[in-house]
């Protein structure tokens, strides 16, 4: 109905019935004063909305009283107004943290104080004073009624008033709200359960609670209170802080010993995890963001000069290829992957022997003695041989700092090669999974029942993280490192990548143990062709390069060393003006 038609209809109604249409309140007169009590209840219920009018009424009455009894009190009123305004500006930060809110409160105090002073001297009904009070009430009321946090607080108060009745309906009768707090995204509360009830009772009723509270589906989180088994913490997110992808803000870690910041939790806190001497497992359905998480990890670790990175990408290198210049080795076929893992076992063995000889327990990574992290995308595609090496690394690799970071869709025992790998994974990151039981598959037995509900994650990059010291199912979303950022970050970090330490490099050059090593032929080639002075061999190759330059794989062959070492030397030559990059990945001497 158009506005004009609506007005006409209202006029007709008024003419016909001689009354205005208005909300009808039915009162049944059971005892005198019940109407008054109902009105008082209504005023109490809407006290927040009515606050500007109540304040105006009190100020008006105060003006009447002071003008009649104490018309000479105006100097006191001026003093009180100035003190009150200054107090709000200077000391109000604790109650009103935002400047705009303090400014509003100070302006209201100044306005009402001034009006009261004038009303005390001249009388509240004199001249324009009543009009000023009326207009001031409306002008001051608008920001008050509009204020988002006030409205949210009122809504929470009303929700919590209805808590006992609501929880009775959803089957959690007897629980009480201990405290509640409104925040930027919604609100949180501490709930005391009836004796005998546990967090599992609350978790089992989560959808019913969402319905009872009238939230959107998926807005409610329930966590255990670490101090009381009969308390739970609930959090209602009116707005999803993870609704939009979060761009990667850049690297803050310089060492593998620094925690890697993967993304942010729902309370905007950073999601940090240490990967130092720990194996990691990333699980989730296709498209849940596993490669995205690996990108964040690589963006961070390639900036750390005390970790050498090897990659296995059995999607033909599709995911890890952009990082190739920062990876010391990259395997893209199952055979190469098995060779790579076999070599990792040899590094591990050499380091373990060295540690034992020096009576040390762990390998402390430094740029000269870097950790070795093997990043594996699509772990389930490895062959049996590779599974055996991975199993050995998973069991023995922590102390010598040779660790795995594996991503896979469903880490069943079959997919993980039936070895000990899954049980050895200390850091478990679960993205969206299709079935509830897959939660336990990725995170460990019993995690679903304990509230790790990864099957309800609803966007790529959202995850739950379990690691030493991280045992509460806080939802997080990984940063999104877009393709441009990957390329720029890889280019920036490539010149600073460390080479493997001499001991580990020597272990790779020494004659392979055929019982342990499947790739004797390749290794023998490296050993045969490995020059005594790789730096000199590199320089000779650059000098002898054709005008189109010599490729990186060729340089790796002539030096017998890895990508990082070669990049570091090439950039030294380039910085000294001795060599240059002819085209992408092809170099020659000046
Ligand atoms: N953190 C993130 N934030 C927003 N979008 C993301 C995030 N991570 C991944 N995505 C988006 O989700 C899509 C799938 O991501 P990704 O390839 O990482 O998934 P995956 O689990 O590795 O899939 P698959 O198993 O098929 O390789 C990508 O197109 C990407 O844009």
TrEMBL record:
<dbReference type="InterPro" id="IPR027417">
    <property type="entry name" value="P-loop_NTPase"/>
</dbReference>
<protein>
    <recommendedName>
        <fullName>FtsK domain-containing protein</fullName>
    </recommendedName>
</protein>
<keyword id="KW-0547">Nucleotide-binding</keyword>
<dbReference type="Pfam" id="PF01580">
    <property type="entry name" value="FtsK_SpoIIIE"/>
</dbReference>
<keyword id="KW-0472">Membrane</keyword>
<keyword id="KW-0067">ATP-binding</keyword>
<feature type="transmembrane region" description="Helical">
    <location>
        <begin position="74"/>
        <end position="91"/>
    </location>
</feature>
<keyword id="KW-1133">Transmembrane helix</keyword>
<keyword id="KW-0812">Transmembrane</keyword>
<feature type="domain" description="FtsK">
    <location>
        <begin position="257"/>
        <end position="440"/>
    </location>
</feature>
<dbReference type="InterPro" id="IPR002543">
    <property type="entry name" value="FtsK_dom"/>
</dbReference>
<dbReference type="InterPro" id="IPR050206">
    <property type="entry name" value="FtsK/SpoIIIE/SftA"/>
</dbReference>
<feature type="transmembrane region" description="Helical">
    <location>
        <begin position="103"/>
        <end position="123"/>
    </location>
</feature>
<feature type="binding site">
    <location>
        <begin position="284"/>
        <end position="291"/>
    </location>
    <ligand>
        <name>ATP</name>
    </ligand>
</feature>
<feature type="transmembrane region" description="Helical">
    <location>
        <begin position="50"/>
        <end position="68"/>
    </location>
</feature>
């Amino acid at each position: 109905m158009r506005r004009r038609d609506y007005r006409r209809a209202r006029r007709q109604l008024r003419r016909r019935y001689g009354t205005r249409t208005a909300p009808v309140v039915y009162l049944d007169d059971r005892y005198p004063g019940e109407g008054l009590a109902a009105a008082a209840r209504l005023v109490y219920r809407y006290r927040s909305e009515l606050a500007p009018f109540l304040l105006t009424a009190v100020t008006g009455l105060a003006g009447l009283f002071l003008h009649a009894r104490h018309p000479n009190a105006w100097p006191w009123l001026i003093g009180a107004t100035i003190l009150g305004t200054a107090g709000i500006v200077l000391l109000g930060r604790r109650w009103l943290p935002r400047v705009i809110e303090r400014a509003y409160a100070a302006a209201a105090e100044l306005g009402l104080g001034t009006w009261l002073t004038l009303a005390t001297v001249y009388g509240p009904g004199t001249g324009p004073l009543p009009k000023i009070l009326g207009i001031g009430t409306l002008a001051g009321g608008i920001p008050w009624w509009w204020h988002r946090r006030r409205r949210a607080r009122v809504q929470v108060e009303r929700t919590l008033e209805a808590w006992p009745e609501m929880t009775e309906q959803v089957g959690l009768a007897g629980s009480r709200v201990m405290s509640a707090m409104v925040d930027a995204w919604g609100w949180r509360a501490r709930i005391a359960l009836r004796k005998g009830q546990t967090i599992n009772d609350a978790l089992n009723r989560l959808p019913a609670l969402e319905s009872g509270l009238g939230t959107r589906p998926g807005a409610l989180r329930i966590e255990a209170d670490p101090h009381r088994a009969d308390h739970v913490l609930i959090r209602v997110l009116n707005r999803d802080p993870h609704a939009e992808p979060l761009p990667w803000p850049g690297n803050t870690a310089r060492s593998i010993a620094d925690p890697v910041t993967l993304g942010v939790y729902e309370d905007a806190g950073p999601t940090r995890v240490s990967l130092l001497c720990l194996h990691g497992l990333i699980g989730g359905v296709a498209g849940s963001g596993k490669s995205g998480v690996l990108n964040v990890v690589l963006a961070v670790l390639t900036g750390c000069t005390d970790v050498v990175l090897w990659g296995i990408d059995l999607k033909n290198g599709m995911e890890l290829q952009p990082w190739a210049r920062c990876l010391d080795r990259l395997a893209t076929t199952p055979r190469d992957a098995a060779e790579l893992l076999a070599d990792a076992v040899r590094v591990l063995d050499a380091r373990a022997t060295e540690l034992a000889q020096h009576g040390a327990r762990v390998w402390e990574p430094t740029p000269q003695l870097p950790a070795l992290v093997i990043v594996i995308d699509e772990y389930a595609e490895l062959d049996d041989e590779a599974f055996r090496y991975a199993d050995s690394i998973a069991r023995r690799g922590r102390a010598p700092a040779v660790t795995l970071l594996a991503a896979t869709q469903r880490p069943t025992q079959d997919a993980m090669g039936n070895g000990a790998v899954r049980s050895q994974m200390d850091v478990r990151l679960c993205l969206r999974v299709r079935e509830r039981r897959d939660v336990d598959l990725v995170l460990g037995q019993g995690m679903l029942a304990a509230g790790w509900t990864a099957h309800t994650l609803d966007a790529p990059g959202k995850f739950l993280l379990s690691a030493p010291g991280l045992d509460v199912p806080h939802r997080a979303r990984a940063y999104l490192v877009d393709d441009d950022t990957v390329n720029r970050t890889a280019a920036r970090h490539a010149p600073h990548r460390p080479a493997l330490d001499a001991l580990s490099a020597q272990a790779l050059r020494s004659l392979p143990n055929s019982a342990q090593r499947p790739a004797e032929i390749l290794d023998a080639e490296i050993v045969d062709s490995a020059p005594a002075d790789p730096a000199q061999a590199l320089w000779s190759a650059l000098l002898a390069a054709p005008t189109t330059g010599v490729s990186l794989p060729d340089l790796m062959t002539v030096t017998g060393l890895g990508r990082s070492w070669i990049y570091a030397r090439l950039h030294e030559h380039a910085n000294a003006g001795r060599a240059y990059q002819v085209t992408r990945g092809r170099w020659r001497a000046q």
